[in-house]
Description:
- The chain has helices at 4-18, 35-40, 52-64, 75-80, 83-92, 120-124, 138-150, 194-200, 219-229, 245-251, 275-281, 286-297, and strands at residues 22-26, 45-47, 68-74, 97-102, 130-133, 155-159, 177-180, 186-190, 207-211, 213-215, 232-240, 258-264.
- By secondary structure, it is an alpha/beta fold.
- The chain has two domains: 4-159, Thiamin diphosphate (ThDP)-binding fold, Pyr/PP domains (Rossmann fold), CATH 3.40.50.970; 177-297, Rossmann fold (3-Layer(aba) Sandwich).
- Helix 10 (245-251) links the parallel strand 11 (232-240) and strand 12 (258-264).
Amino acid sequence: MDTMRDRFAPLVTRLLDEDPRVVAVLAEIGADGFAEARRRHPDRVVNVGIREQLLVGAAAGMALTGLRPVVHTFASFLVERPFEQVKLDLGHQDAGAVLVSAAASFDWPAGGYTHMAPGDVALLDTLDGWTVHVPGHPDEAETLLRHAVAAGDDKVYVRLSLQSNARGLPVDGERLRTVREGRAGVVVAVGPMLDAVLDATEGLDLTVLYAATVRPFDAAGLRRATESAGTDVVLVEPYLAGTSTAAANDALADVPHRVLGLGVGRAELRRYGRIDEHVRAHSLDARSLRERIGAFVGAVPAGV
């Protein structure tokens, strides 16, 4: 199966054909995939070189002229390194852009810690007005990227990953989707964590919700689910553990509830290894998730 990033350049090339406002802004990473787009639209494919602060600053300037920039590089170079520009050039100036990352939390372990960004969504949470999409399949990535480009002049972050569920689900860029219904608690699986969560909760009396869009957080959807499934909530996210616990707590602020946030731990793993080894090291594999979720909710079998 092709990856989310395999779909990215061909889709943006089509968007450049379809919409004269769209401009692709790159910092060397992924530039080879835009050779045809650059031939067809030489004035709307801009490679600033390895200058990530300029990457975001230039995109903000383009946005202020009425263009819709699609900005791409690794997550650590797109959110963390140029964070001041994300905060000021985009946020303070109220300039919209679509930031599309690659490498996610630990998708290229050989690149080392400089190429890992498990805190990207949490960092964007310190700013106002961002929509954050975390697709779990290449089909969803295409849908959500089209949503993002069409979203007027909004500030949108699309987090691409090599990790993927086996199949894509219909996503609307807004609401939580109910995948399984139960009565003993709610598990929210974000993006590529869905398959592991479904395996981990097989046979347990739990509702499983799926989120491919995490900001704005679908508070109403979570509340509806807890009305029949109870107010024990587990969040399983492919980035920093606990990133969305405040959003879940706010959604349930007027009712007694418990929230457990599972995700990537804060400790730096210096043996870089493979993606699957990082998944296990952070206890995000199905077996570990079953133990952690089961201990939290009491491991109630379905039908009991």
